[in-house]
Design brief:
Number of strands: 0
CATH topology: Formate dehydrogenase/DMSO reductase fold
Strand content: under 5%
CATH superfamily: Formate dehydrogenase/DMSO reductase domain
Distance between the termini: 21 Å
Radius of gyration: 24 Å
Shape: globular
CATH architecture: Up-down Bundle
Number of helices: 17
Number of domains: 1
Order of helices and strands: HHHHHHHHHHHHHHHHH
């Protein structure tokens, strides 16, 4: 009996040639906006304007328009900040770590994931500005010379560490995203005319496509990947220090850094999955974002969801094993207190729902993948809400116990972040190549149907 080793599914289907790759990906950049794109873009702009009105109202009236109280001083603002930072993790992970490990399947999804990272970090930063209440004094968070004031920031505060970590992450992610686009921008430049040729010519930085240019491009990509890889681990680790370095029961725990990183990758991959599934259909890129890509993404979602589930169980075990009654009560209150419904939503969405991906038929089902990715992001939002609010709303004094209820200010500011994110993503997907043409071409020979069939013919 002859045993044949399984062959991985093709990463590019439809028998595409190098010319086909260029035509398919440049088509949506060069053509006029479709009716569907215009409708979606107008909706996102309307949502952005509506949300922006609430942001301005928040700054005008003060943080009293939120549902905060004396006991719950952090709620939706920090929940949304941590949630958006987490979503921004998948882009750098797909681009940097999978590049270093030479994973070919990253090539069709890394461009959109990198763009998603940048937009998500901007949304996260907007909540920090809102939370300050006085955004015109935001520069106080930076270690500026004494000519700007007589006091420096408190370098022992993890909130200051956040400023350094997230600004570094944002800078490197922008550089990585833009450098990766230069060859594709040059391709669009060479096909364009008029003012578009001048714009894309300036953006492509004089790219010639020579051997020296490609050698330097690959060297820079590897260097940036090497710089970005520790950032994937450090950024959300430092975000977790906002809670872990405190003495509040429910926050003061050493499991937070790895647990937050796993959760960030979990939610980030879910958002990438949602965006890529929509992009796949809208721009007719089914031959580039294949079922194989969807299945591999779902495998990572399942693994990271399981890690998060283990972290939840570990938290409960350590709380009761410690023998500290306040710690034990904090976790018991999460599951059985007045906010039990948020804990139940978190456990259902994050731990139980991804387990259906153990079945290949469901893992490669587009509708199921989209729904579960949405459910995961809902669950990860509830996770941050549970960590923040349920640890605060009942403290050492029962007389100060309270219940948090969001107001329209909280909701309006959250709506703003969605309008901001999708407006930027729609502009990116229309005017820039949403898939990395150069990298797809680099794996075309070994990963497409046509070349595999040609090999079989030549072998016979």
């Amino acid at each position: 009996m002859q045993v044949v080793s399984p062959i991985r599914e093709h990463l590019v289907t439809g028998g595409k040639t190098y010319h086909d790759v260029t035509e398919d990906i440049c088509r949506h950049v060069e053509s006029k906006p479709t009716k569907e794109w215009k409708i979606a873009f107008i909706i996102s702009v309307v949502v952005l304007i509506y949300g922006a009105s609430w942001v301005l109202w928040t700054w005008w009236e003060g943080l009293g328009v939120w549902g905060l109280n004396k006991t719950v001083g952090w709620a939706w603002d920090i929940t949304n900040f941590v949630w958006w930072v987490g979503i921004g993790h998948a882009g750098t992970l797909i681009s940097a770590i999978l590049l270093l490990f030479r994973q070919k399947w990253r090539t069709s999804i890394n461009r959109a994931a990198e763009a998603m990272t940048i937009f998500a970090v901007l949304c996260a930063a907007s909540f920090i500005l809102m939370h300050m209440g006085r955004p015109w004094l935001a520069y106080w968070a930076l270690p500026l010379p004494n000519t700007f004031g007589s006091l420096w920031v408190n370098f022992n505060s993890p909130l200051v560490w956040d400023v350094f970590a997230i600004s570094t992450y944002f800078s490197v992610s922008c550089l990585f995203w833009y450098i990766g686009m230069v060859p594709d921008l040059a391709t669009i430049r060479d096909r364009a005319t008029g003012i578009r040729k001048s714009i894309y010519g300036a953006l492509s930085l004089g790219w010639t496509g020579g051997a020296k240019s490609w050698a330097r491009y690959e060297d820079v990509s590897l260097i940036l990947a090497g710089l970005s890889t520790p950032l994937v681990l450090s950024v959300h680790t430092i975000v977790s220090f906002d809670f872990a370095t405190s003495v509040i029961p429910g926050w003061h725990t050493t499991i937070f850094p790895p647990y937050f990183v796993a959760g960030a990758i979990f939610s980030g991959f879910a958002m990438v999955q949602n965006l890529m599934l929509v992009t796949r259909v809208v721009y007719k890129l089914e031959d580039y974002i294949t079922i194989e890509h969807i299945g591999l993404m779902n495998k990572i979602i399942t693994v990271t969801g399981s890690i998060v589930g283990v972290a939840y169980i570990t938290e409960f075990f350590i709380a009761f094993y410690s023998g500290v009654q306040y710690e034990s009560y904090a976790f018991l209150n999460r599951a059985t207190g007045p906010l039990w419904w948020s804990y139940a939503a978190m456990m259902t969405c994050n731990v139980l729902s991804p387990q259906i991906f153990w079945f290949k038929s469901l893992r490669e089902n587009i509708v199921v993948s989209f729904v579960i990715a949405v459910v995961v992001n809902i669950g990860m939002w509830f996770e941050r809400f549970v960590i923040i609010v349920t640890s605060l709303h009942r403290d050492y004094l029962p007389s100060s116990w309270t219940y948090f209820t969001p107001r329209m200010g909280d909701i309006g500011d959250y709506i703003f972040s969605f309008g901001f994110f999708f407006t930027l993503f729609f502009l990116f997907s229309k005017y820039l190549p949403v898939i990395n043409m150069a990298e797809v071409k680099s794996v075309l020979k070994s990963s497409s149907e046509k070349t595999t069939e040609e090999k079989e013919v030549s072998a016979h």
